[in-house]
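lol forgot to send this yesterday, sorry. struct tokens for the thing we talked abt
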């Protein structure tokens, strides 16, 4: 688009402003759309108000007295525990995931990952490479840290 056509377009749109301001506005709008798109992508998981937040696992107390596993945004966990009597599950570790609950007690039950999965143990002075066996990280080698 040449300068003359661009000037005619801005006048036709009734902006009564300079070419520089129109371009700045268009660039700002494009930049804002890009930022919103990036933030929106990070906030998509989940359906509730906790979208985009770190999730924690809970064994949720249902109205019928049974428990089932749910994930909620971390800020909502305390309220769930206080209002519903939910049980906060441990954070997943390299050899276990927590995605099931005992339906009568509400205890979080670990599900071991596949045997042979890589894991690492550290005691502050040494790092030990290992493999998962029945939900436990079993050392295979040790190196100084």
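and heres what i got for the seq, position by position
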């Amino acid at each position: 688009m040449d300068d003359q056509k661009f000037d005619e377009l801005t006048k036709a749109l009734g902006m009564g402003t300079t070419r520089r301001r129109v371009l700045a506005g268009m660039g700002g709008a494009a930049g804002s759309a890009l930022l919103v798109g990036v933030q929106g992508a990070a906030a998509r998981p989940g359906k509730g108000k906790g979208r985009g937040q770190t999730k924690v696992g809970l064994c949720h107390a249902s109205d019928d007295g049974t428990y089932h596993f749910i994930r909620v945004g971390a800020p909502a966990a305390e309220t769930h525990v206080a209002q519903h009597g939910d049980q906060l599950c441990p954070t997943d570790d390299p050899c276990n995931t927590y995605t099931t609950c005992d339906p009568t007690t509400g205890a979080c039950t670990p599900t071991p990952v596949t045997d042979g999965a890589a894991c690492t143990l550290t005691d502050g002075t040494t790092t030990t490479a290992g493999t998962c066996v029945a939900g436990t990280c079993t050392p295979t080698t040790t190196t100084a840290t």
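Helices lie at 3-12, 19-42, 74-84. anyway ping me if u want another try
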